[in-house]
Write a structure and sequence with these properties.
Layout: H1 17-27, H2 30-43, E1 47-49, H3 85-94, H4 100-111, H5 123-132, H6 140-151, H7 163-172, H8 178-189, H9 191-195, H10 199-206, H11 210-221, H12 235-238, E2 246-251, E3 254-259, E4 266-268, H13 270-281, H14 291-325, H15 327-332, H16 343-350, H17 354-361, E5 365-368, E6 371-374, E7 382-385, E8 392-394, H18 395-408, H19 417-426, H20 433-442, H21 448-451
Parallel strand pairs: 2-5
Antiparallel strand pairs: 1-4, 2-3, 5-6, 7-8
Helix pairs in contact: 1-14, 3-4, 4-6, 7-8, 8-11, 13-14, 14-16, 19-20
């Protein structure tokens, strides 16, 4: 094989170590940043915390905190530590007189309940899982006894294999009567018509008078479709608390922005400062043994402080630009005051690169007096022109209009997406039926058929 030499010219861009560090810090949200600073303090002996100057100070000095005292600092309620669904069910099982094997099987079944209290696997599959997993060997009779024990626990409806089964379980526990029996008949023989909210089909299919069907439907609708939600079910979900990165307050018409973190004011440890000064004085001589470690740790600490400060300044610049553009919304809490805003608009105000702004707003949240919102909530494109004043409408305005129309509709004759589109067009919004459906779904509003009141 012949050998040859080849010269090639390439133009590229390579980020420095400090730039890479800045990008990584910028992508972190408030809790992640706190952890990153703690790790850096533990890993780098050259990095330290400035001593507190007031004895009454109880914490650290957060960077860019707007308040002057601890009373200004926001207090967030911790996750609920109440009894979980599983603990509640295990406690009930321990009071039942079950054989050891059946009780083990029942506890395994409880452990397989989802947050709604449903079982997603069939009983035969659960028997196989018990045998191959924890080694609980039960026959079909014992498995059925264990399942019946779980389904008899409170709250009623636990251990169902779906919504239909759950509703039937709850109805069976009620005293027998005409309305209860009619409700069971609807669930067993006219369930498809029930979930489609086709009352006329239920009447014709079961040959029941309208008054009895209305009473039975009212009873069914009073049941709990998610019995597992009556108690805390998943500790992981309970701990999934959103901690905002910013806090915006309206103080008599003046908006204040606070970076919500507990980061201390960092400094380079005095011993490393002195060591570096000694090294600089003896730089012309032979380097001392171990000087590489001192220089490396000193430079890392200095760079981290610089990058962290740059990160905080960048975050404040981005949030300040968002508040400036959306000032009317932050003053009024009126979603109709939201202006069209893109990343390029923030870039024009801050002079920052689009990628920097994108990283600074991804997975970040802001707390306002009326709720916590992701920063991306304030970004929206314009949708046509309004007919009244010619101002560009945002998708948030369109969503608010759709929600208001659905709220005011006749629930016996709910508006279809086509009707909503026609009404929006009459109001001056240039939207398609598909756009209406997308914004409706985004707000968790069901289709017209499911909004119909029986």
């Amino acid at each position: 094989m012949a050998q040859s030499l080849k010269m090639e010219q390439r133009i590229g861009m390579r980020l420095s170590q400090q730039q890479l560090r800045f990008v990584k810090l910028l992508e972190l949200n408030a809790p992640e940043l706190d952890e990153a600073v703690e790790r850096e303090l533990e890993d780098n002996p050259a990095l330290g915390v400035k001593e507190e100057t007031h004895e009454e100070d109880t914490g650290r000095y957060p960077l860019f905190f707007a308040g002057n005292n601890d009373d200004d600092r926001p207090v967030f309620t911790p996750a609920d530590e109440s009894e979980s669904l599983y603990d509640h069910l295990y406690a009930q099982l321990s009071e039942r007189r079950l054989s050891p094997k059946v009780e083990l099987a029942a506890r395994y079944i409880v452990g397989n309940l989802d947050s709604n209290g449903y079982l997603s696997r069939s009983l035969s599959n659960l028997v196989d899982d018990m045998a191959f997993g924890p080694g609980i060997d039960v026959n079909d009779t014992e498995a059925r006894e264990a399942l019946d024990a779980v389904r008899s626990l409170e709250p009623t409806g636990i251990g169902a294999f779906g919504l239909r089964d759950c509703l039937e379980l709850q109805l069976k526990t009620l005293p027998s009567g005409e309305t209860r029996d009619d409700a069971l008949l609807i669930i067993r023989d006219a369930y498809d018509a029930f979930i489609m909210k086709h009352k006329h089909r239920i009447i014709s299919q079961l040959h029941l008078p309208a008054e009895r069907v209305d009473a039975a439907l009212a009873l069914i609708l009073s049941l709990n479709p998610k019995p597992g939600n009556a108690l805390g079910s998943d500790p992981a979900e309970e701990a999934n608390v959103i901690i905002p990165d910013f806090i915006v307050n309206n103080e008599d018409g003046e908006l204040t922005i606070t970076l919500n973190n507990r980061i201390p004011e960092l400094q380079i440890e005095q011993s490393f400062d002195q060591a570096m000064a000694n090294l600089e004085r003896t730089a012309k001589g032979r380097p001392k043994k171990g000087s590489e470690f001192i220089v490396s740790r000193y430079n890392d600490a200095r760079d981290f402080i610089r990058v962290l400060t740059q990160r905080q300044q960048t975050m404040m610049a981005v949030m300040s630009a968002i508040v400036k553009i959306q000032k009317e919304y932050f003053l009024t809490e009126d979603v109709y005051r939201l202006r069209p805003m893109m990343i390029k608009n923030v870039s024009e105000l801050t002079g920052l690169d689009l990628s920097v702004i994108s990283r600074a707003t991804t997975n970040k949240f802001v707390a306002t007096p009326w709720g916590i919102f992701p920063l991306r909530f304030f970004f929206s494109d314009s949708i046509g022109e309004t007919a009244e004043d010619g101002n560009a409408a945002t998708n948030r305005k369109v969503e608010a209009e759709i929600a208001a129309m659905v709220e005011a509709e006749d629930k016996r004759h709910p508006l279809s997406d086509q009707k909503i589109m026609e009404e929006m067009t009459a109001r001056g919004y240039d939207v398609s039926r598909r756009t209406v459906a997308k914004y409706r779904d985004r707000q968790g509003i069901p289709v017209a058929r499911l909004r119909k009141k029986l």
